[in-house]
Amino acid sequence: MPVYTLNVPPSTVIPAPNVATYASRSIYVTPSEFRNAPTGVDVSQLIPGDSNQTHQAAALVMQLQRASAVADRICRKVLGATLDTQAGYYRVQNVDGVGPALKVPLDFTPIIAVCGASAGPTPSSMAAVTDLSNVWIGKKAVTIPVGASRCAGKQYATVSYLNGWANTTLQAAAVPAAVSITVTTALGIMPGQQLTLLNTSNSEIVTVDPAYIPSNTATNVLIPVTTPIVGTYAAGDTVTNMPGEIKQAVILIAKSLILTRGSDAIEIASTNAQPTHMSGVEPAVASDLEFAEFLLSDYIRAA
């Protein structure tokens, strides 16, 4: 079969405007969270016959990554905080108190923040919307003021926005009386937001200082909080505002992935007898997955 090569001049390669930072997401449940959940699952032998616990720990991380991806698949969106860009062709509307504006429906929720927008009569003439002070964020759409010069017709536009739930870990230890925490990534953390600090022996809710300036890309970030920390936390402990039912669903999905060895088994009475019937293996797996889907039902992306 012949092989065809398409040589396209660089100037004609147009990147798609709808982009997302999917690579920035982390697993939704840490190995520590899973080990301390009442699953009844032995995670010391995920790789049969391998006595190297480093390998076993890596296998658990892989299963939690898969479970997080399954939760995303069920909900038809990335549940962890991501930065996305929505692009389209929208009608300019005259909005009371705002003036000419574009109402842009966004694919992913919850919408945390609008980070930037651009608009123009043609794709090549789009310019940044410099005044975002009157941006209105709804449950599934945002209203973007575009200025009096764009008061009629339709406009091409892009909107960069944060959505999903912040879910990260401590980059450094947090001790009692501290009034800040250092997180691995700050994506999705907003001023005034409540975050849960969690480890095997402590759990508490802290509020991000309203003066905190959020970042879409920063790592190893110092986050000021409004009240002193009570418990003691180590690097790697959980920092999240992800709803508990999402985390529980991921735990159940991971449990089912670990327990699944096959869908059916052939049963025989003894080694020299004939097979008698087929039976399902690990019947709890199906119920775990069903319950996980139930827990995630409120978070499924609407068409």
Low-confidence stretches: 262-266
Radius of gyration from CA coordinates: 24 Å
Q: Tell me about the biggest sheet?
A: 7 strands, antiparallel
**How far apart are the first and last residues' alpha carbons, in Å?**
41 Å
Quote the average pLDDT. 87
Main-sheet strand order equals 4-3-7-1-2-6-5
Number of helices: 4
Shape: globular
Describe this entry's structure for a reader.
There is one protein chain. The chain is α+β, with helices and mostly antiparallel strands. The strands form 4 sheets. The protein has a 7-stranded antiparallel beta sheet with strand order 4-3-7-1-2-6-5, with no helix packed on it. It has 4 helices and 15 strands. It starts with 30 loop residues before the first helix and ends in a 7-residue tail after the last helix. Among the domains are: 82-163; 167-241.
SSE map:
Blueprint: H1 31-35, H2 53-75, E1 82-95, E2 99-105, E3 111-120, E4 127-128, E5 136-137, E6 141-145, E7 154-163, E8 167-169, E9 180-185, E10 194-198, E11 203-207, E12 219-224, E13 238-240, H3 244-259, E14 264-268, E15 275-280, H4 284-296
Antiparallel strand pairs: 1-2, 1-7, 2-6, 3-4, 3-7, 5-6, 8-13, 9-12, 10-11, 10-13, 14-15
Helix pairs in contact: 2-3, 3-4
Summarize the structure.
With 303 residues, the protein is of the alpha+beta class. Helix content is 19%, strand content 29%.
List keywords for this structure.
303 residues; alpha+beta; 7-stranded antiparallel sheet; 4-stranded antiparallel sheet; 29% strand
